[in-house]
Structure prediction request, 624 residues.
Amino acid sequence: MSIDATSSREPPKGASALAFRSGSADDRATPSRHRERSATRGRKPRRLTIGRIGLYGFVAVAAAFFLLPAVVMVLTSLKTMPEIREGSIFALPESFDLTAWIKAWSSACTGLDCEGIRVGFWNSVVITVPSTIASIAAGAILGYALSFWRVKGADVLFAILLLGAFLPYQIFLYPMVRAFSMVGLYNTLACIVIVHVIFGLPIMTLIFRNFYAGLPVELFNAARVDGGGFFRIFWNVMLPMSTPILIVAAILQITNIWNDFILGLVFAGRENLPMTVQLNNVVNSTYGEREYNLNMAATILTAAVPLLVYFVSGRWFVRGIAAGAVKG
Amino acid sequence: MTAPRKRPSTASLMLVPFWLVVLVAYVGTMLWTVQISFTASKLLPVDVYVGFDQYHRLFSSTRWLVSMQNAVIFGVLFITGALVLGFLLAVVLDQKVRFENTLRTVFLYPYAMSFIVTGLIWQWLMNPGLGIQKAVRDWGFESFSFAWAVDRDMALYALVLAGLWQASGLVMALMLAGLRGVDEEIWKASRIDGIPAWRVYLFVVVPMLRPLILTAVVLLSISVVKAFDLVVALTNGGPGISSDMPAKFVMDNLFTRQNIGLATAAATVMLITVAAVLVPWIYSEYFRKVRAGAAT
Prediction:
């Protein structure tokens, strides 16, 4: 965990040490458990003791706390409105009624538009795909430049970026809105994509810089001796080795951008509102009777993409958290 | 450092667009915000400078004072709560419990969801007429109350609860990685000395995890300062202003109340507050170590 603030080859504090540590801890987890089995460890015995029962009691309560909201959501989404009004929130639905899901997807209303949450879904897809690709590309190139090429002022650049990652968006938003309207981009798809790339830059740069700093510098030097230029080395040497970090970066950016609310709200414009914003409009600004089953179905649909990423990526997700630990 | 020393013109050129982004999008907008905060701007920025008037207005505004106070209460409860809960979960998972992988997935999945989704879920659970409150009352506990989100005195704690649900898994994941890195020898030694496990955790392991805990605190603090989505989805700052937050105060004054001068002043106060926390942290993380390194 020691860094020399002036060297560009060393990974920045905390986050990097964390990334490496958690990565290795992850990889080690399985073998070390085998080892523990034979070695006597100073912890509780595995027989059923009071402590052990208490332990499982705590686990059960904790699991209930984390799971219950999801269970209730799914149950509610499958009920009919009379069932919701009369029955308990924990009661099972009488029949699996998918009407609310279909309505949520294709005819839920936000104000006067009743085209369902699918509008926001496709908007989010259209925003997330280019934003993810562009921010990864930008972060990879900058991270590579910062870790292998000695460029004057690179540390200052990186320091400002890091600081930017910590500051609340509120401090940047209004001038950005003004600037985008001056160039006529405000409230367009391009606008929201550019904003995502700008605000994704610190975290992307950080994780790529950490990753490249972990590669042997001899590799780079050899490529230099062979006459490789900036882009050739990046493209032919670095990129082929970057698969793991590209996966981590993609997981991070897809979830971050999909889950974003505030930037989409401010910059995307009425035509491109992302799913999170549309969802909030559907649930929080409806007049008349609220359709809770529809609301819950829409909420699950909005959470579906990041949850899918989470379940499919497994350990990679945790690695992403550790690598991106500097981001809020 | 063994980095090359050739004149890297392409690399320097490559940094130019990034410099532009950083200087315009980060530094420029920040300075612009600070500049507006010293003007009398309402709907649009104007160049009438009024000194610290906006700040004076800001700190005479009950709504701002309440939202600052809320941020402090929310922050303290949310950060300590997430640290304690996350650490406990990590310790429990480190006891070779069954279904460890499943449990880890269960504890962490809320973190994959957005604050908007989190807020809406808990809004439903806390629904006074249909949510958990009704279910428990139907079971015979007539005085049970869980309609926190619509209760002036409890709305803030509703935010804390929902926040804990979403973010404790993050602390758990970080801490578990740290616990797995603790040396076997420490456990052996403490066993020989007959020290109970909880004391080892509290007095040996926790100090060892200090950097990780610090990182977790920084991460959680950022989400406190940025708390906007969760508030909008769960309570929308209400009832009244009882669960308002600085981030929401700024957004409302910027985009719905057309009070740009006041909003930028509030944003500047947020900036200064965050910087006041960040600078010591960055100092301790970077410069203290540099000096230690230089001494050797």
